[in-house]
Amino acid sequence: MTPVIITWFDAINHGDGDGQPRHRPSKQVAIGFLLKYDDDGISYCSEYSEDGSWRDEVFIRDQDIFKVEELV
């Protein structure tokens, strides 16, 4: 299983009452194990077991992805 660092743009909830809207997506970074990466997007998980199963699967749309880096 290949570990990856994924950087993407996502909506974010700001609950601090700043008084000014932050009218833009926010850059997010995650580290996980690559499950699938194609033209639709990327699926990764945060935990991978030696028996081939995983937990905490996440999908990010391709148009939101900024960068994917493999860790070797």
Describe the model.
This protein has strands at 3-10, 26-38, 41-48, 54-61, 65-70. It has a five-stranded antiparallel beta sheet with strand order 4-3-2-1-5, with no helix packed on it. A hairpin with a 2-residue loop joins strand 2 (26-38) and strand 3. The chain has one domain (3-11, 26-70): SH3 type barrels (Roll), CATH 2.30.30. The protein is mainly β and 72 residues long.
Short description:
With 72 residues, the protein is mainly beta.
Quickly give the structural class: mainly beta
Q: Rg, please?
A: 15 Å
The global form is elongated
Q: CATH top level?
A: Mainly Beta
Strand content: over 45%
CATH fold group: SH3 type barrels
How many domains make up the 3D coordinates?
A: 1
Largest sheet: 5 strands, antiparallel
Number of helices: 0
User: What is the N-to-C succession of helices and strands?
Assistant: EEEEE
Features:
0% helix; mainly beta; 72 residues
Write the layout of secondary structure elements.
Layout: E1 3-10, E2 26-38, E3 41-48, E4 54-61, E5 65-70
Antiparallel strand pairs: 1-2, 1-5, 2-3, 3-4
